[in-house]
């Protein structure tokens, strides 16, 4: 114990300053946790102030610790590299989230991952980019189920604004996949599925569906063809064509018709609504009914199918 006190009192040798520095860091850390605990108790009913109290305590004790360490190591001028090494390590450890966000910002700008106005999905949040700062990206959230069924729990089921503004750390660009809906293309491939019974005139239903999706967005298709040509020229990329198609398959004895077509990024819901209304009207005029689930009892056995 006496040797430890001697080292703490010795600020002329490297070993003494090192031990003193470790003691300073330990005391600062303990005080920081004590302050945070007191803030949690005194500000129990105010989560906003409680959060910022913890942040301020962290920053203040980090800054004070850094100043004390500089003062301790300053007399050892011949060992400036050691001082700088400890200072750099301390700052990097205390501000690793901030540093990660700063490098994420550089990554966004240099890599052109997204820009203001783009529609993106990152960290389970989907929305339109409102602002990009050195630390965070601000999104106007849009609805829709995120990938994997996880995310922010939006009550809006379609890809339309919810009214919530979401701030995401730029560090997410390193740790999460970033989906950009409008960086290269201002349109997306969309699908609309209908099911008709096996005894219906499914060829006529297919023709009606194809006619309606073709008439929805001819200008978008022309733009899509030009964009794909540029992508192919620049990246040797081929993603097929943008001409609408209807795919047919048999599902539990009924006929499933899936139309695949292109639509503007921000018009998907409106376009599907308009197409669906017209298709339903055309099917009704043609006497074609959509399949619907029914339950039949045969010889005591319950069988479920669509009609």
Structure description:
The chain has 307 residues and is of the alpha+beta class. The chain has 3 domains: 2-94, no CATH class; 114-180, SH3 type barrels (Roll); 187-294, Alpha-Beta Plaits (2-Layer Sandwich), CATH 3.30.70.100. The protein is 49% helix and 23% strand. The protein contains 9 helices and 10 strands. It has helices spanning 2-9, 14-42, 47-73, 80-94, 96-111, 172-175, 202-216, 218-235, 268-286; strands spanning 119-122, 125-132, 136-142, 161-169, 178-180, 187-196, 245-251, 254-264, 293-298, 301-306. Strands 4-3-2-1-5 form a 5-stranded antiparallel beta sheet. Strand 2 and strand 3 form a beta hairpin. Helix 1 packs across helix 2 (14-42). The longest helix is centred in the N-terminal third of the chain and has 29 residues, at 14-42. The radius of gyration is 31 Å and the shape is elongated.
